[in-house]
Amino acid sequence: MKQIKYIRKAAPPHMVGDGFKVRTFISSAMWKDMSPFLMLDYIEPTDYLPTDHPRGVDVHPHKGFETVSILWDGALAHEDSSGGKGKLFAGDVQWMTAGAGILHKEFHEEEFSKKGGVLHGAQLWVNLPAKDKSTPPAYQDIRSNNIPEIQIANDKGKIRIIAGEMNGVKGPANTFTRINIFDAHAKADASFDLNVVDGDHTTLLVLKGTVLINDDKTAREGDMLIFDNSGENIHIQTNNETHLLLLSGEPITEPVAAYGPFVMNTQQEIIQAIDDYNAGKFGHLN
Fold first, then answer.
1. How far is CA 133 from CA 140, 263, 264, 273, 279, in A?
2. Per-residue pLDDT, 84
3. Dist. CA 248–CA 234, nearest whole Å
4. First-to-last CA distance in the chain?
5. What is the DSSP letter of 230?
6. pTM of the entire predicted model
7. Model confidence pLDDT, tens digit, residues 44-93
8. Which secondary-structure segment (H or E) carries 88?
9. 277/256 Cα distance (integer angstroms)
10. Which of 45, 73, 115, 122 has the most neighbouring CB atoms within 10 Å?
11. Distance, C-alpha 104 to centroid of its chain
12. Beta-ladder partners of 105
């Protein structure tokens, strides 16, 4: 069994742009326990009124890492300077590799904006190793019907395998380092295991419900559990309807230098990234 190292609550909610009410779960002080994961903004379920002006975040840069957007309710529209463009609906995932540098914008999808409704999702930042930080920008459009599921015993729910592998079931995301992202939805009184690689950094977010971990520790909605590296198994028992997000990955044991939307290995590389952005080397996006 993987043992819990500590439990953390998210920071108070804040707005990103005018379209995303988020709670940030990962801080820079946690990177030593969380690598390759740099940030996780949980987009709390929020009911938006109809509007003719889609809410969101206008053009901004990224370099040196990947962004993973998971959507559970609502609809989003994305566009970037590499030519990536698309819409996300409930259950879909957008995996964007910023790599050498990209411009990006993300808004509520037009029809969703006009009708209004609940938006619910998460955005994760995943570090890239030094050898891949200058990889060409890329975009993976992962549709809900292409994400395989493991059924929980006794018809008690499902575990969606977005990235990585569990019980021989492989997720569709292509990754630079070993990463697992498991999206579990369970009914009350479910009992199941989440299996990861021994030695990997592992965290579990309780987005809904109350669960008993390893027959020992109760975790509630809003808790983020950080586990010791040793061990391969986390046993879950649910008390009520539950939504869990498991993240695990091979640690990237390299220095991290970060400034806003740039994540590199040294301060000199950060200065170069800013210079490249100002020189228009990230492409163009209206």
1. 17, 9, 7, 11, 19
2. 87
3. 12
4. 50
5. S
6. 0.97
7. 999 999 999 999 999 999 999 999 999 999 999 999 999 989 999 999 99
8. strand 85-89
9. 19
10. 122
11. 17
12. 79
